[in-house]
Amino acid sequence: MGAWDQSRGNGVADEESVGNGTGIEKENLDAGALFVLQSKGSWLHCGYHLTTSIVAPALLSLPFAFASLGWEAGIICLALAAIITFYSYNLISLVLEHNAQLGRRQLRFRDMADDILGPGWGRYCVGPIQFAVCFGAVVGNTLLGGQSMKAIYLIAKPEGTMKLYEFVIIFGIFMLIMAQMPSFYSLRHINLVSLVLCLAYSICATAGSIYAGHSDRAPTRDYSISGSTTHRVFGVFNAFAVIATSYGNGIIPEIQATIALPVKGKMFKGLCLCYTIVVATFFSVAISGYWAFGNEAAGTLISNFTVDGVNLIPKWLLTITNVFVLLQLSAVALVIITSKKEVLIFFFFEEK
Asked: For position 205, what pLDDT does the model report?
């Protein structure tokens, strides 16, 4: 029972619930909410969590999306996606705030589903779907982490013989250890570092694109959209998917549940902090990457920095970019893991 049923008439949290930090009577919290979604954070902590969940290395694929859209459509789609997702996230936040004021604070998407769609929808429909999506995201982050580790390894030792699966195992073990962090609140400092890291590798990627674009070895830039009509149509849909994936990872209810009372207005401040970073990173990487490589932009911008085994940017810049990406990937995976850890705790440790 993640949502609090108003039973005291005026919806004011009693002393025990305030001490618990959630505004929900302690005995009404399930084990997952009690241990993972501790409501102790400020709006700054909320901003750190949101930034880590949304601003991820997927933004390095934005130049590839521009290659299928062109300059005008690419910038318009990126701007519209920012406006739409900010409005959507803020709207969800306002709904959660309103219900909290009515004495029914919802801590998770499945709590919202139970209230909106009816009992059972959260547990048997929304919850499993969200869990499956997050599980896939964690697997994807682990694979990307292994790829980043291998890229760093090959830069340092071009003739190295270690295989990708070995790096995936190493990164997976590292994430298994980090997953022991008990709650969202315990991630606040890690996610602050993650915020700095996403700015760092975005600056590195932007600087690398500008450097490569002015290099004598830079490929000839062509901004036309090539291919047959069918290829272009599917390319547009692929670009939409890349942009939507880059923006659409905000875990709003779970993150808002970590805010200490009173909740009102804090999530909006956190979203403003998050989207300041979003605009600074997404647009700089997308525009500089597409400017430098045109319709030759690869699925990830870092791949464009090496052509036929030759680096277009200094080796040190390529190395630290990969290191920053690797470190932030671990923080992103940790946020997703923590958001779903409460489900496992609920099923395995909740008293029946």
From this structure: 95
Q: What is the 3-state secondary structure (H, E, C) of 197-213?
A: HHHHHHHHHHHHHHHHH
Dihedral pair phi/psi, residue 38, rounded to 5°: -70, 130
| Lookup result for tokens 């200490």 | 260
Determine the structural domain holding residue 121 and report its residue range.
16-349
Positive or negative, the Cα torsion across 74, 75, 80, 82? Answer: positive
pLDDT of 143-162, one tens digit each? Answer: 999 999 999 998 888 888 89
In a domain, 2, yes or no: no
Within-domain flag for 233 = yes
Q: How far apart are CA 343 and CA 123, in angstroms?
A: 10
Q: Residue 176 is encoded by which pair of tokens?
A: 């298994």
Structure tokens at 9: 């008439």
63 neighbors 301 (Cβ within 8 angstroms) = yes
312 touches 218 (CB < 8 A) = yes
In-domain check, residue 5 = no
Domain CATH code at residue 243: 1.10.4160.10
9 occurs within a structural domain: no
Name the average pLDDT for the chain. 83
Torsion of CA 51, 55, 56, 57, to 10 degrees: -150
Name the burial class of residue 319, with classes exposed (0-12), middle (13-18) and buried (19+) by CB atoms within 10 angstroms of its CB: middle
Cis peptide before 314 (omega within 30 of 0): no
Domain count, the chain: 1
* Euclidean distance between CA atoms 307 and 143, whole angstroms: 23
User: Do the Cβ atoms of 49 and 187 come closer than 8 Å?
Assistant: yes
